[in-house]
């Protein structure tokens, strides 16, 4: 089974991002999770295309881009050019979901779709048939790091079951929000394989040890 950790750099020391990235590389982190917020889709603003382009020049790590923006379709080409390896956008955004999936498929990037806590599993089912790489099940309301975990085990199980029953055995399920050594076993038991973690990883003294705990 796939067992990956994607570090959300939203909680990192942003003025020393390069050394933070070196720390991720030497701590066994698999992916860099890059949260893009536009202040409209979510009540917060983070960073965007020029910052991603700089990161991509400095590391070979897999860049897992999470778009929390109103009109993702408009920016797929820009994030691709800036070095994204995976582009995940929200099913609740204003862009047409199928069109956005197709636009990502026209690039070299992997496609992910994300669902907020109130969005039911069934809402993502029709798009799993579009050969997605990943479904992101939010375990907090998107917008901020450091929030408390919401248990989405039932949703994860439903998505896993649907994917397996329809032959999409390779579909990855990612979780994002409030993931630490206590909550990781809960989401993994339900079938999540890619764990995003921000505040937990960046606050511990020994990141490699924390990554080991998340991977179990
Ligand atoms: C929240 C972001 C997350 C956030 C996770 O909207 O999508 O990626 O950085 O942070 P923690 O792990 O602190 O909940
Ligand atoms: Zn995220």
Question: How would you describe the overall organization of this protein?
Answer:
- The protein is an alpha/beta fold and 216 residues long.
- It has a single domain (4-215), classed as Aldolase class I (TIM Barrel, Alpha-Beta Barrel), CATH 3.20.20.70.
- Helices cover 34% and strands 20% of the residues.
- It has an eight-stranded parallel barrel with strand order 1-2-3-4-5-6-7-8.
- The longest helix has 13 residues, at 153-165.
- It is globular, with a radius of gyration of 16 Å.
- The two termini are 12 Å apart.
- The mean pLDDT is 98.
- The structure holds D-xylitol-5-phosphate and zinc ion (ZN).
- D-xylitol-5-phosphate is lined by residues 8, 10-11, 33, 35, 66, 140, 142-147, 176-179, 196-200.
Rough outline: globular
Oligomer: single chain
**What structural class is derived from the secondary structure elements?**
alpha/beta
Q: Which strand order spans the largest sheet, edge to edge or round the barrel? A: 1-2-3-4-5-6-7-8
CATH topology: TIM Barrel
Give unreliable regions as ranges.
none
Main sheet attributes: strand count, strand direction, barrel closure: 8 strands, parallel, barrel
Please provide the ordered H/E string of secondary-structure elements: EHEHEHEHEHEHEHEHH
- What is the domain total for the residues? 1
Radius of gyration: 16 Å
Question: What is the average per-residue confidence, as pLDDT, rounded to a whole number?
Answer: 98
Please count the beta strands (DSSP E, at least 2 residues each). Answer: 8
Helix content: 25-40%
Ions, cofactors and other ligands present here are: D-xylitol-5-phosphate, zinc ion
Provide the CATH top-level class: Alpha Beta
CATH superfamily: Aldolase class I
Q: What separation lies between the terminal Cα atoms? A: 12 Å
